[in-house]
């Protein structure tokens, strides 16, 4: 099937200053904010009456290449009663075709590259985003280049190569962005991920793919059922995508109340900004929660937390590890940073941020094979 722009897509809007832009590719975010020294990404705008059903609010009309989404929702009744919340669910994004939520994004990145006639895609990543993009690109015969850092986990590099992608190794995480940025700016590759410091969110077409997770939760649990959603967060693509999906449903009258979104992180980043730090600072740390162990904060992550009345919760590695074991005992195999959400939930209940009547969803972004 040929990829087409969704006729309901009107253009893009800066999530910080509100500047509007025609339909296009804004990998570096809002140019007006950039001139003021700020990094902020753009969000897609649709015709007001456009429905969320039948991809009415997805940027492209395109097939699902790998069959992502509609992931299982696992009930954790025993843990809910131990923790003192009314209901607890785990949304198993690990059930996506390449084992993580990233497949929701890769679909729209590859589709947009196809639509533009760009034969190559690139991502700066050392983990599941690379495998997802490589497999999705391979499914349509597209070339993928994945720029990793030295010392990236060997099994990920093997899985990326195993799906036919070229792997370029850089000395560290920051130089990955420079390398991927050169390819994006040269126009030889269509980029999936951010390449700026301080960063913006990933490719705006791709991030739109995460809205479907928000839609699914409302369809599965009902318009009033969810009080809080806990999301492992680094640069906040998933957090923002879920927020956007829920916001659209609320505006269309299909969601009665916006769930509070809680970003879980291994050391204070969003937490520090919410307590006064500038979001453009660097927040370095060391953690075994590898998928979320960056040193930056994005405007989109802050927006999702603030606009939903949520917060950021810091969970260290020992708590994440004991939470992983606890989840496994309840039949959920989770990546370490996803398991950390259970530890975060425990703190939110302990300090009365969440009430005993709360219904909570943990987003299990990837499976138990990952740190
Ligand atoms: Zn702006």
- How many domains would you count in the coordinates? 3
Q: What structural class do helix, strand and pairing data support?
A: alpha/beta
The major beta sheet can be summarized as: 6 strands, mixed
Order of helices and strands: EEEHEEEHEHEHEHEHEHHEHEHHEHHE
**Which spans have pLDDT < 50 for at least 5 consecutive residues?**
none
List the helices and strands and how they pair.
Layout: E1 4-5, E2 9-14, E3 20-21, H1 31-35, E4 42-46, E5 60-61, E6 73-75, H2 77-83, E7 87-92, H3 102-116, E8 120-124, H4 128-139, E9 143-149, H5 154-162, E10 166-170, H6 173-186, E11 190-191, H7 204-208, H8 211-221, E12 228-232, H9 237-251, E13 260-265, H10 270-274, H11 299-308, E14 311-314, H12 317-329, H13 336-350, E15 359-364
Parallel strand pairs: 7-15, 8-9, 8-11, 9-10, 12-13, 12-15, 13-14
Antiparallel strand pairs: 1-5, 2-3, 2-4, 6-7
Helix pairs in contact: 3-4, 4-5, 8-9, 9-11, 12-13
This protein binds zinc ion.
The site of zinc ion has 8 residues, from helix 1.
Key terms for this structure?
18% strand, Rossmann fold, 15 strands, alpha/beta, four-stranded parallel β-sheet, 13 helices, six-stranded mixed β-sheet, 37% helix, single chain, 371 residues, binds zinc ion
Overall description:
The protein folds into three domains: 4-61, no CATH class; 73-98 and 207-364, Rossmann fold; 102-203, Rossmann fold, CATH 3.40.50. By secondary structure, the chain is of the alpha/beta class. 37% of the residues lie in helices and 18% in strands. Helix 3 (102-116) packs across helix 4. The longest helix is centred in the first third of the chain and has 15 residues, at 102-116. Helix 9 (237-251) links the parallel strand 12 (228-232) and strand 13 (260-265). Strands 6-7-15-12-13-14 form a six-stranded mixed beta sheet, sandwiched between helices. Strands 10-9-8-11 form a four-stranded parallel beta sheet, with helices on both faces. A three-stranded antiparallel beta sheet has the order 3-2-4. The structure holds zinc ion.
